[in-house]
Amino acid sequence: MKLLAIDTSSSYLSLALSLDGEMYAFHEEMGQKHAERTLPEIDSLLQQAGIKLAALDAIVFGQGPGSFTGLRIACGLAQGLAFSAGLPVIGIPTLDAVAQQSEADQLLVCLDARMQQVYCAVYQTGPHWQRKGPITLQDPQAVVLPDGISQVAGDGFENYPTLLAGQRELIRHSGVLRADARAHIALAQSGRYPMQHPREAELLYVRNKVALTSIEQQALKG
Question: Which GO terms describe its biological process (predicted)?
Answer without folding.
Answer: tRNA threonylcarbamoyladenosine modification
